[in-house]
């Protein structure tokens, strides 16, 4: 389950009853700067003769970020890395059976990192356009909300971001049934499934650095992604529960190092450790921007109530070190 980030508001609901079925979909607004001009990419669907953002329905068991990246590549041939979330689009329509349904589409900003650009899946044209041209070409008023957000973030100097992902290890075998050193306690079958499920999510945000508690349950949570992406796992004793009891500052130092590096990173630790890290991050909420209050609130709520096992909390950060500011947060629960 995904809890959309602060600042991602809903579009018009269309007056549909709450009992109408909801179709979940995801997409992205790829952007670039060309000769100093901000441009965005949109797609043309000949079946509907309309211009819109690349998007599509979630597959069974798929998370929104994974679906957004997959749909962009399937429709445009472009591989993208997701940036900060954009406003949620929620609207009603009449399906093929003549019944009213609701659709919820979650969007992200995105930057192109590869791909052939070959057109696929019923798309006959991809257009990179300056903002004013894109605003005029969009066929649906609801799609302009995402474009306005892109423009607003660009104006705030907060369109270019990098992700810092806090991960609580997935479900492990019960403590009371484990007779060996607790640091060696492995994931159970459910936890192993979650470790596999987060692989496409970390890939969607382009995570390139993995830092984890040296405890087996944390290492095994990130190991499938490390193997898939060809990355090294940085095992840190300071992120273990045992070291945290002796010296909480060691865990904070690992967090500060991640902020100093400023590269897309995931940091995996334990339930008792993460609240302090979340509190440290809350002071980086960009309070000078409209979304800042919600960012701080989300981080402090996660610190107070705790993160779920296997949860990913994605902080979208601008700047590095002392200049680092968190402009959006999203939580992805099992």
Automatic annotation (TrEMBL):
Gene3D superfamilies: Nucleoside Triphosphate Pyrophosphohydrolase, Phosphoglycerate mutase-like. GO terms for biological process: AMP biosynthetic process; ATP biosynthetic process. Keywords: Hydrolase. InterPro entries: His_Pase_superF_clade-1, His_PPase_superfam, NUDIX_hydrolase-like_dom_sf, NUDIX_hydrolase_CS, NUDIX_hydrolase_dom, Nudix_hydrolase_domain. SMART domains: PGAM (SM00855). GO terms for molecular function: bis(5'-nucleosyl)-tetraphosphatase (asymmetrical) activity. Coiled coil: none annotated. Residues 21-151 form the Nudix hydrolase domain. This is NUDIX domain-containing protein.
């Amino acid at each position: 389950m995904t809890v959309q980030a602060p600042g991602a508001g809903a579009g018009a609901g269309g007056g549909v009853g709450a009992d109408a079925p909801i179709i979940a979909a995801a997409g992205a607004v790829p952007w670039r700067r060309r000769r100093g001009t901000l441009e965005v990419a949109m797609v043309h669907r000949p079946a509907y003769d309309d211009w819109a953002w690349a998007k599509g329905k979630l597959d069974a068991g798929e998370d929104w970020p994974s679906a957004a990246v997959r749909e962009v590549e399937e429709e445009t041939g472009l591989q993208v890395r997701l940036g900060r979330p954009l406003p949620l689009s929620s609207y009603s329509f009449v399906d093929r059976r003549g019944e009213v349904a609701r659709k919820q589409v979650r969007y992200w900003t995105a930057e192109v990192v590869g791909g052939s650009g070959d057109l696929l899946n019923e798309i006959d044209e991809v257009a990179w356009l300056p903002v004013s041209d894109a605003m005029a070409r969009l066929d649906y008023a609801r799609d302009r909300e995402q474009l306005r957000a892109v423009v607003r973030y660009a104006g705030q100097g907060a369109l270019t971001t990098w992700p810092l992902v806090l991960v609580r290890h997935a479900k492990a075998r019960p403590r009371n049934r484990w007779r060996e050193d607790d640091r060696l306690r492995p994931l159970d079958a459910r936890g192993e499934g979650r470790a596999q499920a987060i692989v496409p999510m970390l890939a969607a945000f382009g995570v390139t650095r993995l830092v984890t508690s040296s405890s087996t349950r944390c290492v095994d949570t990130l190991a499938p992604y490390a193997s898939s992406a060809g990355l090294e796992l940085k095992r840190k004793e300071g992120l273990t529960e045992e070291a945290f009891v002796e010296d909480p500052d060691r865990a904070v130092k690992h967090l500060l190092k991640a902020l100093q590096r400023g590269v897309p990173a995931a940091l995996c630790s334990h339930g008792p450790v993460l609240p302090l890290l979340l509190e440290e991050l809350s002071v980086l909420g960009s309070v000078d921007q409209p979304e800042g209050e919600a960012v701080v609130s989300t981080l402090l709520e996660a610190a107070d109530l705790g993160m779920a096992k296997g949860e990913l909390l994605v902080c979208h950060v601008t700047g590095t070190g002392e200049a680092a500011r968190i402009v959006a947060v999203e939580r992805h629960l099992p």
